Amino acid sequence: LGFDSLYFARIDYQDRAKRLKEKNLEVVWRGSKSLGSSSQIFTGIFPRHYDPPDGFTFEINDVSPPIQDDVLLFDYNVEERVNDFVAAALAQANVTRTNHIMWLMGTDFRYQYANSWFRQMDKFIHYVNKDGRVNALYSTPSIYTDAKNAANEEWPLKTEDFFPYADHPNAYWTGYFTSRPALKGYVRMMSGYYLSGLVVIYPYIDAPVKISHRIENTTLSPSYPESLSP
Predict the structure, then answer these.
(1) Which tens digit of pLDDT belongs to each residue from 151-183?
(2) What's the superkingdom here (predicted)?
(3) Which of 46, 108, 142, 164 could form an SS bridge with 9, CB 3.0 to 4.6 Å?
């Protein structure tokens, strides 16, 4: 495929919950029956989303307590924050195979003030490594993948697709993935005919109609008046 690995966050919430219990968030994904093993790739699904654990966001106005390492100030908290870091790391390690985990620092709209992020990450890496219970470092997906490969772990095999995707009950992202383009194109085309047909037949319907249909991450919610002139 030209890649060594693939990492992403969005899978069905029920699938994620099951994988967390079974430590199957990282798999070998063989997505094509016809291509077989030639198409497979090491794939990792993030355990929560593409953001850091709770308590470790450092954007403007975030509520996560920063490390205060000046012993002359009343709110010195290095030991407390190191304990928080270690606890969060061990919690993720409990749902991840091997002793390597990945944290995503930053998320949507959360890198507007990079200086505060890197200042805190520098401090966490320094004090966590000084504590010695876990080892923290700046890394990349490539470095992480190499560490996983070096562990000689036998990874579960995932076949077929991760579609459909819902992030909570009855909330399906019907157009999120680019898989099954022919089917999705057909659904989109037929939806257009369906909506057009409603406009044509609406004058003959007594009750008002409201339609909400989500296609390709776009919500179309036309509300028609109670009467239309043909």
Answers:
(1) 999 999 999 888 888 999 988 887 665 667 788
(2) Eukaryota
(3) 46
Mind giving me the DSSP string for 24-62? -SEEEEE--TTTGGGG-EEEEE-SS-SSPPTT---STT-
Structure tokens of 12?
A: 């069905």
What distance in Å separates the CA atoms of residue 222 and residue 1, rounded to the nearest whole number? 42
Kindly write down the DSSP assignment for every residue of 196-220, as one continuous string: HHHHHHGGG-SS--B--EEETTEEE
Q: Which CATH architecture has domain 5-173?
A: Alpha-Beta Barrel (3.20)
Tally of CA atoms within 13 A in the half-sphere of 113 that contains its CB:
9
CA 51-54-57 angle, 5° bins: 60
Amino acid at the residue 173: W
Which H/E stretch holds residue 177? none
Domain residue extents for the chain: 5-173, 174-204
CA distance 230 to 215: 28
Report d(CA 164, CA 6) in Å as an integer. Answer: 19
**179-203 confidence digits (pLDDT tens):** 677 887 888 899 988 888 887 766 5
Q: At what angle do helices 114-131 and 78-93 cross, to 10 degrees?
A: 80
Query: What single DSSP character describes residue 182?
Result: H
